[in-house]
Each structure stands twice: as structure tokens, then as C-alpha cells.
Design brief:
One of its GO terms (molecular function) is zinc ion binding. By secondary structure, this protein is largely without helices or strands. The chain folds into three domains: 48 residues, no CATH class; 93 residues, Herpes Virus-1; 57 residues, Herpes Virus-1. The strands form four sheets. Strands 1-2 form a two-stranded antiparallel ribbon.
Length: 203
């Protein structure tokens, strides 16, 4: 391995006539780039693809992901969005975001471009998994789909309690027609049985 000097390197730079070999774990340390898409090509630090966007960051520019300063120019560890050319970030930061977002949600953190941004990230060796984003795992946001289900009247009069709700009648639970974040039984709000809409005091 031309990076660590140990034996067992199995990856060769794809550039013709380049005899550099390296281990996959050594690639990052050596500034190598691996394409995680067919044909899974790898390149040493000398022959790796570079961003051809002709911009440099302003002094004091921060990575939009970690909010730490980026290098004062494009480098292996400092990248820029190819679409807006204003969003700067560290390679490690965008790699972490790619692992969370997956191919369906990875986009520029500033301009939200997806098409040009994604294709450039593949070329520059960012691994983007072909799966749903991790925030969709295990129904992480399932509770956001739950409907409000209790009476918020100051004095709930329902014999069954605030969470009791009947299909019709005085103990039917009405949700605020504007925010749906507050509820009341018809009887607790002094509403007759033919009323089907109600608005909370906040709205």
C-alpha cells in the first residue's frame, strides 16, 4: 500500500500506467477517491477527479453542516456545491449527511439542488447508500401522524374522562378546525349535537 506501506493492498489506481496500490481503509488518509457506483473505480491522490468549479471561499467561510471553518480553497477535504457555488462543506461532513439521507434525500444544504449535486458527489467519491433516509427507520416520526385525542376544556364534564370520545352525541370529541392541536367534547364547550366544527380560544 503506497499510503501505509503494509502488504495486502488490493485496490489499484485506475489511471493507465499508474502502479499505486492501496487498502480501502487507507484511501481517505491518502487522499484517494473511490467511486461507489459501477464500475467501482478507484484513483490515487494524483489522478483522482477534482471539482472544476472555479470559485474560492470567502475568508471565514464555515461548513454549512458542522459550522467550523473550511479551508481557504478547494481541497480534498473542502468541497463546494456545483450548482449554487456558495455552499461550502467538509468532505467528512457531507459524507456523514449522505449516509443519513441516502440517495432519495441527499441535496445541497443551501440551494437544495439534487440532480447536479448528487452526480458530482458520486464522481468525487462520496458514498451515497441506495436506501431510504435513516430518519424513516423504525417509524421514528410515527407520533407526528397521530391525531389529538383528548378534551382540553378547563373543566371536562365527561364521566369517562378527557380521553373518552363517542361517535356522536354530547361526548363527541371535536378538534379545533384551525390547528387541530386542541379538542373538546361538545358538552364541555356548551355546543349542541348538530355542531360539527369548533375553534379553540387560541385560534
Amino acid at each position: 500500500c503506497y499510503v501505509c506501506g503494509q502488504s495486502g493492498a488490493t485496490i489499484m489506481c485506475r489511471e493507465e500506467d499508474c502502479d499505486r496500490w492501496f487498502h480501502l481503509p487507507c484511501a481517505k488518509e491518502g487522499g484517494c477517491v473511490t467511486h461507489y457506483i459501477p464500475h467501482y473505480s478507484s484513483y490515487c491522490h494524483q489522478h483522482r477527479p477534482e471539482q472544476d468549479v472555479q470559485v474560492t471561499p470567502e475568508p471565514g467561510t464555515q461548513c454549512l453542516i458542522c459550522m467550523e471553518l473550511v479551508d481557504d480553497r478547494k481541497t480534498f477535504r473542502t468541497m463546494v456545491c456545483p450548482a449554487c457555488k456558495r455552499a461550502w462543506f467538509h468532505r467528512d461532513c457531507i459524507q456523514g449527511q449522505a449516509m443519513c439521507a441516502g440517495i432519495l434525500c441527499l441535496q445541497c444544504p443551501l440551494c437544495r439542488d439534487m440532480k447536479e449535486f448528487l452526480s458530482q458527489m458520486f464522481i468525487l467519491g462520496i458514498r451515497v447508500p441506495f436506501r431510504l433516509p435513516t430518519w424513516e427507520d423504525n417509524n421514528a416520526f410515527a407520533e407526528r401522524g397521530e391525531r389529538h385525542s383528548m378534551c382540553n376544556a378547563r373543566d371536562c364534564l365527561c364521566p369517562g374522562g378527557r380521553e373518552e370520545a363517542e361517535a356522536e352525541g354530547p361526548w363527541k370529541l371535536l378538534l379545533c378546525s384551525s390547528c387541530a392541536a386542541q379538542g373538546t367534547h361538545r358538552h364541555c364547550a356548551g355546543l349542541s349535537n348538530h355542531i360539527h366544527m369548533w375553534e379553540c380560544d387560541s385560534c
